[in-house]
Amino acid sequence: MEWAADVLTAEEYDVGRQIAQRGVAAVYVIAFLSAVAQFPALLGEKGLLPVPVFLARAGRRAGPTLFHRGYTDRRLRVVAWTGAALSAALVLGIPQAGPWWVPLIAFLLVWWLYTSIVNVGQVFYGFGWESLLLEAGFVVAFLGSAEIAPPFLVLLMIRWLVFRLEFGAGLIKLRGDRSWRDLTALYYHHETQPMPNPASRFFHLLPKPLHRLEVAGNHVTQLAVPFLLFMPQPVAGFAALIIIVTQCWLVLSGNFAWLNTLTIILALAAVPDSFYEAVLPALEVSGAHRPTPPYVSVVVSVAMLVLAYLSWPALLNLFARRQLMNASFNRWHLGNAYGAFGSVTKVRYEVVVEGTLDAVGPGARWREYEFKGKPGDPARMPRQIAPYHLRLDWMMWFLALGSERGWFAPFLVKLLEADPAVLKLLRTDPFDGERPRYIRARIFIYRFSTREEKRATGLWWIRELQGVVVHPASLRADVP
């Protein structure tokens, strides 16, 4: 079995294993805390899309979840806090200090708990990075503890995951919007992306030739560089570093929840210890390992073969005429297809929600509800939110594009009721807990102010009213 140990182990990836395990676990901490803060208001017993109603309708078609036995907000919080605690222990490296199977069990428990949440999360959990986090958590579970060398097959499967993530995103762009092919996509994307950050306006105002260079560099990184991840070192390590640099560029220029952060963490698993030793010559990063037990090699090999089998539909999807974007092909969210922004919106629309205590008329004073992340007040600087995920804010971006999945009307009702849980999801309540008499929603075109406009007005955004999405509505019986 010595030859098998030589093939199945990778002595030179101790740092990569630590980064992958602790980094993925840290993202799980964020995800579970996000569920504690947002899930009850969005999907709880009295949420916008209540889970009990969804499960009564979907039944087993919802997928595997602990909540088939009954959902309550209390049970959700127990699941989320348990997942956050286990994930925090993995960040600290506590399970990794034990036998090989301890971090395996810990990660699989975290993966199962978050699967239970995602499978009842409906539209609010329908993002590609949810499946990415689930798949990443399952794969890194098999990296084991520090007592043995990192399993090479697991590191290879992590590279395969990064490949699908990058190459799938590159293909969806090449097949999608013409602006990606003529290199003009970033004339618009920094401004029209779902949730700009403080630097997005700076990136948007860069010269257009630089935008074209950005797009060209993106194509190279996503369509060519991923293949190099499977080359011998040091080529694979340098390919990973190129991917990491481009992902850092995306972190600087926008808010995409934990998508970029998680991609960086996974890519770092392809960087060998020798790279770190070259930067810090005095650092000895590779520790001594005991021989890998045969049963570990068997368990890892079987698990990775199952993952490879589950990835087959995703591989076929890469070469399909109608490539699916961010698709799961099984109930466990393993072996997924990835890709984002195959089309680029050229104009930014924003739905602005307002309420009033007055009767509807020319003298009514309408006050705007401010969201935590999405653009609203033109004078307000965009916020840095990622790697945290503001689910309601993202849904408002899709709403402005015409996509609504049954949550917006309940949201307006909750505002009319001054529901405390929903109001906590917002940055401001203009009525300080008082129920508004009427509520309405209007749609605007937003664009970043030019440098001259910013100096003259102090505004980050210039907006122009386009129309009314929801005319003044009320729940009160004493209004016409």
Features of the shown structure:
480 residues, alpha+beta, 4-stranded antiparallel beta sheet, two-stranded antiparallel ribbon, 20 helices, globular
Q: Compute the gyration radius: what is it?
A: 24 Å
Share of β-strand residues: 5-15%
Strand order of the largest sheet: 2-1-5-6
Question: Could you tell me the number of beta strands?
Answer: 6
Main pleated-sheet profile: 4 strands, antiparallel
Round the mean pLDDT to the nearest integer and report it: 94
What is the structural class? alpha+beta
The shape is globular
Order of helices and strands: HHHHHHHHHHHHHHHHEEEHHHEEHE
Percent helix, as a range, is 40-55%
Number of helices: 20
Distance between the termini: 82 Å
Poorly predicted tracts of residues: none
Summarize the structure.
The protein is α+β, with helices and mostly antiparallel strands. The protein has 20 helices and six strands.
Report on this structure:
The longest helix is centred in the N-terminal third of the chain and has 30 residues, at 14-43. It is globular, with a radius of gyration of 24 Å. The strands form two sheets. The protein has a four-stranded antiparallel sheet with strand order 2-1-5-6. The protein has a two-stranded antiparallel ribbon with strand order 3-4. Helix content is 50%, strand content 8%. It is of the alpha+beta class and 480 residues long. It has helices at residues 2-8, 14-43, 51-58, 73-92, 101-118, 128-140, 152-175, 178-181, 189-192, 200-204, 208-223, 235-253, 259-268, 273-279, 294-310, 312-318, 391-400, 408-416, 420-423, 451-457, and strands at residues 348-356, 367-368, 370-371, 426-428, 438-448, 461-473. The N and C termini lie far apart (82 Å).
